[in-house]
Specification:
It is a multi-pass membrane protein. The protein is an alpha/beta fold and about 625 residues long. The protein contains 24 helices and 10 strands. The longest helix has about 55 residues.
């Protein structure tokens, strides 16, 4: 219940639906009891029970309004109507009254469930939005440590479990009320018989708690396994070509089978408990009703302190308690499963973002002078990727980073955009530590074109104008032309409204990269970061993309992470990195004269090209 309480804040925007639902639940509970009590006059008419009263009972004050008064007034009403209109009309009138009470009961039931559904769906919508907003606000490092499939499970199936649990708990408002009004009516008819019901409730509750013990922990295990299952599916779909190429179908099939078997075993374990609870609670109810039949029958047949009609109405009320009691049982089980789901969703909502903006963070609107790395050291986990790194990127200059894989080049891009924070030292933007500025305003000054061009399953136009609220077709076309993408886009049937497919699967590698460049151009930032933007392309595509990159970098500050050294020979500064440190820096000509690492890299790549030709 503790986990449930933290989600009560989501009720606040839906006070109207909540109050209406409570009102209709109260009316439903009231008419549930009245509908059974309404059977009493019908029984009196059918079996000619009750005293024949021709004088209307006197009513002086509310003190006179008790069960004895109601019964006397009922006997007077039936006697008078029988005398004046006959027994058939009397029966039809009473049946009409019974139908009215049952109609109102079911009408209020419908309205209470309707407004409860509005309430529950609204809460679910807000919770989903909050979880999604929290996910996209978290730092990149958070996702490095979590399985994508497990996060998807927490954001989808776990939230759906919360919906079912929340609905069950909210519906519990009506069940205790139904039991309360029913018990009041039962006490009014016979307090002696009602004593037996009070024995049933604690016994049932004790047995239910015993049966449901362990459901929460097992539900948590199932949710975790289903998250791993989604991760497995996501990996399978993403790597289907590799799986087939290495004929690893049987390995992945066995791995998937192990997940499904474990989930199946846990589901069966919970199913056994939940399947037993409903029949067990119903049997306990029937057992108590059997005892009531024996004892109540003695009050009618032997003691004669209770009329047959009153006893039948009482039995109807007693049996009516079983339905809300079973509903409470189901809600209790739903709460156990919901608690486990709450904890998994709360894991996302409670996740801390170490890169959260400071309360007094500054907003930067332009790039004036330089970006500077001051004795920066950084590690993703245990080993340092950068060590005492110092570098200045002046405005309007092209700075290229080269070196072997793992030398820390891409880490520079991650740090400058503040996907991660430095462990030691600082990075300043025009003299201001980037930790002291808002992340949004910092990233608005930068555009990134990476090796893996990420496109979304949307139109070409929407991919180019990503992050821009008001789409301008002329600007989109202009950006595409700068990126050398306009010609191939114009060949598509729907041109800029053509869909790129999942991850841009309907485009070639070069086309995807040029769309990514157009997106960066459309953003029009003063700083461009190119992270090996041409390394995965063929020669023809590379030439087109390289021309597009040169168009884009014109009059901009650029940080270029390069694998192919031929693409950065015109850079203002080339920085050669190894093991997280700068070992050489200068222009292309200066570095060649040093006859060091850069010279060797150029020679190796020239040799590779000559061998290929």
């Amino acid at each position: 219940m503790k986990n449930f309480k933290r989600f009560l804040k989501y009720l606040i925007p839906y006070k109207k639906q909540q109050m209406l639902s409570i009102l209709f639940n109260i009316l439903y509970a009231l008419f549930s009891s009245l509908s059974m009590l309404s059977l009493l006059p019908m029984i009196k008419v059918l079996f000619d029970e009750g005293k024949k009263l021709k004088k209307k009972p006197e009513f002086h004050s509310f003190k006179d309004f008790d069960l004895n008064y109601i019964e006397n007034y009922l006997n007077y009403f039936i006697t008078t109507m029988n005398t004046t209109k006959g027994p058939l009309i009397t029966l039809i009138t009473i049946v009409g009254f019974v139908l009215s009470t049952f109609l109102l009961k079911n009408l209020f039931s419908y309205l209470s469930i309707l407004y409860m559904t509005y309430l529950n769906n609204g809460i679910l919508k807000d919770l989903r939005q909050d979880v999604y907003n929290k996910v996209i606000s978290l730092n990149v490092g958070f996702f490095s440590n979590e399985r994508k499939g497990d996060l998807i499970a927490r954001m989808t199936s776990d939230i759906n479990t919360i919906k079912v649990s929340f609905m069950s708990i909210l519906m519990m408002i009506r069940e205790p009320l139904t039991i309360l009004f029913t018990l009041i009516a039962m006490i009014a008819i016979s307090w002696k018989l009602t004593v037996f019901v009070f024995f049933f409730i604690p016994i049932s509750g004790f047995l239910i708690s015993k049966l449901s013990k362990g459901i929460k922990s097992q539900s948590g295990d199932i949710f975790a396994l289903e998250g791993h299952l989604l991760s497995n599916i996501e990996e399978t779909l993403g790597g289907i070509k590799i799986i087939k190429n290495f004929t690893a179908e049987s390995y992945f099939s066995k791995k998937f089978n192990d997940f499904t078997k474990n989930i199946n075993d846990l589901n069966n374990s919970i199913g056994k408990v939940m399947s037993l609870s409903a029949p067990a609670s119903e049997f306990l109810g029937i057992l108590v009703i059997s005892i009531l039949l024996v004892y109540g029958g003695s009050l009618v047949l032997i003691d004669q302190s209770l009329s047959g009609g009153a006893f039948m109405a009482y039995m109807g009320l007693a049996y009516q308690i079983l339905t809300p009691a079973k509903a409470i049982t189901k809600a209790h089980h739903a709460l156990q499963g919901g608690n486990a789901a709450y904890e998994r969703v709360a894991f996302i909502l409670d996740a801390k973002n170490p890169l959260k903006d400071k309360p007094n963070a500054k907003v930067i609107t332009e790039f004036k002078h330089e970006i500077k790395f001051n004795n920066v050291s950084f590690k993703y986990k245990e080993d340092y990727v950068l060590k005492n790194f110092n570098l200045t990127v002046p405005k309007g200059k092209i700075v290229a980073l080269v070196g072997e894989s793992g030398s820390g080049k891409s880490t520079i891009a991650n740090l400058i955009t503040r996907f991660y924070d430095v462990n030691e030292g600082s990075i300043t933007f025009d003299g201001i530590n980037i930790k002291d500025v808002t992340t949004k305003s910092l990233r608005e000054q930068m555009g990134i074109v990476a090796q893996d061009s990420i496109l979304f399953n949307d139109t070409i136009a929407n991919n180019i104008s990503l992050g821009i609220e008001e789409m301008d077709e002329e600007k989109i076309t202009a950006a595409a032309k700068i990126a050398n993408a306009h010609n191939f886009i114009s060949d598509f049937p729907k041109k800029y409204q053509n869909n790129v497919g999942d991850g841009g699967s309907l485009l070639s590698g070069g086309q995807r990269q040029r769309i990514a460049i157009a997106r960066a151009v459309m953003k029009n930032p003063p700083i461009m970061i190119l992270d090996e933007a041409t390394s995965s392309l063929d020669t023809e595509s590379e030439k087109l993309v390289q021309n597009a990159l040169e168009n884009m970098m014109e009059n901009r500050t650029s940080i270029v992470i390069a694998h192919r050294l031929s693409t950065i020979q015109n850079a203002d500064l080339i920085v050669v990195m190894k093991n997280g440190s700068i070992i050489e820096q200068g222009t292309h000509e200066e570095l060649l004269k040093m006859n060091g690492t850069y010279h060797n890299l150029v020679s190796l790549q020239s040799l590779e090209v000559s061998q290929l030709t």
